């Protein structure tokens, strides 16, 4: 069974300053969502972080809540949690694809998001993936967000040197030899 193959897991991210995440969960399948949240919370706490939880009606609202929080709050990263089980209509495809695409686009814009929205064929698959003693996809999503936060902090502090961009608005004036920058 593919779900029980051995795979490599990165060591837990470490931080020298506090880290705060927002867990955004769609509790449509409440028991599954509760397990996903438990896994995410345990991973964040094990890394020394703190978190808040907000519930939204469904998986399509998860990315919107993250975008609102990013504009209005001060979280270092986000954990997207929920479960979409295939039904009889194409609504499954819409919800899976659109929620995933929105999360990916925000990630490409620099948000640190771990995507733990399960997309499964049946309830049993969801239960196994959400179980903290089995696949623990909630913990995995939190770990992904934490690793992205660590990368952001590592590279965000760099302001010069090969391969690193200067802060927005900072540039060197051509023809000067005093090393000054203008904004």
Automatic annotation (TrEMBL):
Mind telling me which residue stretches traverse the membrane in this protein? none
Keywords noted in UniProt: Riboflavin biosynthesis, Transferase
Q: Which GO terms describe its cellular component?
A: cytosol; riboflavin synthase complex
Question: What is the enzyme's main class?
Answer: transferase
Instruction: Name the Gene Ontology molecular function terms of this record.
Output: 6,7-dimethyl-8-ribityllumazine synthase activity
Q: In which pathway does it act?
A: Cofactor biosynthesis; riboflavin biosynthesis; riboflavin from 2-hydroxy-3-oxobutyl phosphate and 5-amino-6-(D-ribitylamino)uracil: step 1/2
Locate the residues binding 5-amino-6-(D-ribitylamino)uracil. 28, 59-61, 83-85, 115
Question: What's its catalytic activity?
Answer: (2S)-2-hydroxy-3-oxobutyl phosphate + 5-amino-6-(D-ribitylamino)uracil = 6,7-dimethyl-8-(1-D-ribityl)lumazine + phosphate + 2 H2O + H(+)
Q: Which residues are annotated as active site?
A: 91
Quote the record's binding site residues for (2S)-2-hydroxy-3-oxobutyl phosphate. 88-89, 129
Q: Which SUPFAM superfamilies match?
A: Lumazine synthase (SSF52121)
What does the record list as GO biological process?
A: riboflavin biosynthetic process
Enzyme Commission number(s) of this protein: 2.5.1.78
Entry-linked NCBIfam families = lumazine-synth, PRK00061.2-2
Briefly state the protein's biological role. Catalyzes the formation of 6,7-dimethyl-8-ribityllumazine by condensation of 5-amino-6-(D-ribitylamino)uracil with 3,4-dihydroxy-2-butanone 4-phosphate. This is the penultimate step in the biosynthesis of riboflavin.
| Family stated for the protein in its record | Belongs to the DMRL synthase family.
Name listed for the protein in its UniProt record: 6,7-dimethyl-8-ribityllumazine synthase
Please name the taxonomic classification of the source.
Bacteria, Pseudomonadati, Pseudomonadota, Alphaproteobacteria, Rhodobacterales
Q: Which gene encodes it?
A: ribH1
